[in-house]
Amino acid sequence: MLLPLPGGGSLIDNPGMRELHRWASEEAFDEVFAEIAALAEACRFADCQHGSEPECAVQAALENGQVDPGRWQSYQKLEREVQHQARQQALHATLAQKKKWKVIHKAMRNYTQATTEWARYWLRLATSACARQIKERVKLKSGPMLIPTRAR
Ligand SMILES: [Zn+2]
After folding, report:
1. Domain count, the chain
2. Sequence-separated (6 or more) residues with CB below 8 Å from residue 92
3. Residue 59: which domain range?
4. How far is the CA of 62 from the centre of ligand 1 (A)?
5. Is the whole-model pTM more than 0.90?
6. 124 FRET partner, CA 20 to 30 A, in 43, 66, 90, 108?
7. Is residue 145 assigned to a domain?
8. CATH code assigned at 143
9. Does the CA dihedral 45-50-55-60 come out positive or negative?
10. Ligand 1 center to residue 59 CA distance, Å?
11. 79 alpha carbon to ligand 1 midpoint, in Å?
12. Ligand 1 center from residue 58 Cα (angstroms)
């Protein structure tokens, strides 16, 4: 997102490296091929690929010799490069995202495992304490220890 500054110029709001790269290459692209970029504005469709779309201003200019075919080839070559770069950057972003989630999932798994182990430990302690108490009560009621305990 571009934010215009009061003194002129603009600031990119929260640019990821990917957006920054893309923005830079697309800007440079339109600058290098200013005449083609200007023609493209006149195409019928905003997302015109300047191929077989109807009412394409670039194709029309190529046909009447207004645009040099060599320039047009360089334009297409550079466009492919820009798109390739954008795809690579998108791929890297996806991989980075995947890696991030992998770390989060691993942390969650470790946490769950630790919590489960902790719960098991306390359950075992509680169970053995309980069992000990039951055993002692049984002993108190049925065993000969009952009398000396009461007498004390
Ligand atoms: Zn076009």
Report:
1. 1
2. 18
3. 9-151
4. 11
5. no
6. 108
7. yes
8. 1.10.40.50
9. positive
10. 6
11. 13
12. 5
